Amino acid sequence: xxxxxxxxxxxxxxxxxxxxxxxxxxxxxxxxxxxxxxxxxxxxxxxxxxxxxxxxxxxxxxxxxxxxxxxxxxxxxxxxxxxxxxxxxxxxxxxxxxxxxxxxxxxxxxxxxxxxxxxxxxxxxxxxxxxxxxxxxxxxxxxxxxxxxxxxxxxxxxxxxxxxxxxxxxxxxxxxxxxxxxxxxxxxxxxxxxxxxxxxxxxxxxxxxxxxxxxxxxxxxxxxxxxxxxxxxxxxxxxxxxxxxxxxxxxxxxxxxxxxxxxxxxxxxxxxxxxxxxxxxxxxxxxxxxxxxxxxxxxxxxxxxxxxxxxxxxxxxxxxxxxxxxxxxxxxxxxxxxxxxxxxxxxxxxxxxxxxx
Length: 357
Prior knowledge:
By secondary structure, the chain is an alpha+beta fold. Helix content is 39%, strand content 26%. The strands form 4 sheets. A 7-stranded antiparallel β-sheet has the order 10-9-8-5-13-12-11. Helix 5 runs antiparallel to helix 8 (174-190). The protein is flat and about 100 Å long.
């Protein structure tokens, strides 16, 4: 007779669990994982924690210095909740990993979309909550294959077994993308730019102006709308043989002309950069620069953004994974708005007066 591994009573011949006990345990694990996500989310939404983490990060020389009585008091209750839920969630480290990452990403996404643009300190406070949380060392053994897009473009790699799986997964989550872009908008508004390699990769282009700064760099595919036309209903008419090799065709009809438009690839994966002055693209066939002073419209699509230049075709930049197309659009709108304000300030309208006699 087998013994149920859940209740410890007889489970029947060649069985080690009761169906009801297994179902109950599965429901408890699902509840614990959902609670893990919610607890982690509330921790990120608690601005007291992120502000204290940011304050310590500015002053700390090493990760070990990122502790204080205030942060310890804030984290103690949170840590006990997480430990209890991790124990209740079972031995599936991958599921626990996903639950914690989902909570962090959802909260980071919410803060990036509902709050004003995040300053560098606010960004660091959100980013480093996981490190300050000091999750159990057992998570260091998680080995996962991750894929996504970062400042260097799409990638796929296997995380080493000795890395912190949760912290590494944060870098490719949508919440991290939202927080980083919110910080980029803050930099544009305040005319302050970062040299942090986590945000700005080395620029592959030669910037034209001395005061020009690279804001965001990625890899994407260039698309354009192409118009083609054809005649439909064409009829050549009957042909009458006059002599050997000589025919006479009569009664032909030209038909009518139809025009079709479609989005076609113009260049495969190339470098794409947004700077303080322009948008750059460099591929195998196309290399160009679009100054923001020449931009007349910016379009947002599901996985791409389109930039309409004065007296030029719309340039569509495709393959912005991880939801970044939405944030790239907002960033471009912010920079364009700043250029319009600067241009209006430099060229104020001339006031005229009508003299009545």
